[in-house]
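User: structure tokens for this one?
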Amino acid sequence: MSHLYDALVIGGGPGGATAALLLARAGWSVVLLERKTFPRRKVCGEYLSATSLPLLENLGVADAFRNQAGPAVCRVGLFAGSALLSADLPRPAGRKPEWGRALAREHLDTLLLREAARRGVEVRQPWYAAKLCRTTEGYDCLAKSPDLAETSTLRARIVVAAHGSWEIGALPTQPARLGARPADLFGFKAHFRNSGLGMSMMPLLAFPGGYGGMVHCDGGRVSLSCCVRRDMLARIRSNCPLEAGEAVLGHIMDSCQGVRQVLSGASREGAWLSAGPIRPGVRLNTPAGLFPVGNAAGEAHPIVAEGISMAMQSAWLLAQQLIPWRQAGASPDYLHKVKTDYAAAWRRTFASRLHVSAVLAHWAMHPAAVASVLPLVQKCQAILTWGARWSGKAKGIGIRA
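Assistant:
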């Protein structure tokens, strides 16, 4: 209890590691808690939009990212029924435009957290925040390590919540347990080798009761991730004796000729991962001094493949508010303004992505809606380019390396 940190970051994923790194680089004392041991796999589409590449440059990890990531993605596609459509992704803005790429989370998260530690962040792993208590100086956090069977109390002036949105808990920023609903979405992810997917292609998969995507990530692998409604998942599993992931894949292949083709000679590497329910929406109403980033702040439907970019960019937006606050004296009286300004910047940057993702998700999950629009998309495949632009694939947030 003797040391007071400038910031406590809860969660070591892309949002948490980025926030911790930026604050530590500005001279803050930062402690970060991550409950999992890295490297670890995670349900995620694994694509990082071109709009976040300037941020990787700023963080000093762009070259390492390029060395590990899959090929540049410059085409967007749609696999729905017998339709196999594709179009150019919108060209990113900037003097030296560069395409987005994908990197498996076991590599990306490790890369970012190591750089944060190198910059002076005190990384405690595997540790998690069991309880937060507001104090006159900020927050006291009861931290626990399940592996070491230890507990510790950490004190910090502010807290950055980067723990995601799936795990329930006692923190003010963690979701409450809700009753099961038919429309709840569950995520699945697996890697495949020897697929027939084009190297520069990232297709959207539209199928009854769900949606998904595919992309080359790293090491010659293709990542397939998807979301499935609870009621559809129950229906799929009732007719299939296979494990949930394989049953969902069978449903997708029955519905999408494109997936059948590109995975006809492929083999799965590793087990299926699952998580959920996914909770799209905005969650910025937090107590003073407690700032959410990533999915803890707000979550778009994964159909637009913007989750990692939103996590890292939200950490950047928060740092642009917190660093001047500390330079001006770090008065607790101004934390409410920091919160208000951050929330406004977050909404300006991401609100449209949430709206677009919700429209696309509901469209992709309903066969009648897909069938009504598909003829138009087939005649004008540039609609796919427009959709990618609306989802945030080309507009950055003014980050300089």
